[in-house]
Amino acid sequence: MGLSLAVLLARAGCHVAISDLNADGLEENRAMLDPTVNVSVHVVDVANREQM
Fold this sequence. Notes:
Radius of gyration: 11 Å
Distance between the termini: 14 Å
Shape: elongated
Helix content: 25-40%
Strand content: 15-25%
Order of helices and strands: HEHE
Largest sheet: 2 strands, parallel
Number of strands: 2
């Protein structure tokens, strides 16, 4: 799921999960989301089958 979709879903009141290879980038992205929704953050390489 892209960041734009995560932002839209959070604005609509949906709880979202976001993932990235970069933990710092994830925290920056989390800060862009509505603070009233639950956001789960996962550092993962989606191209690596074993991490999925």
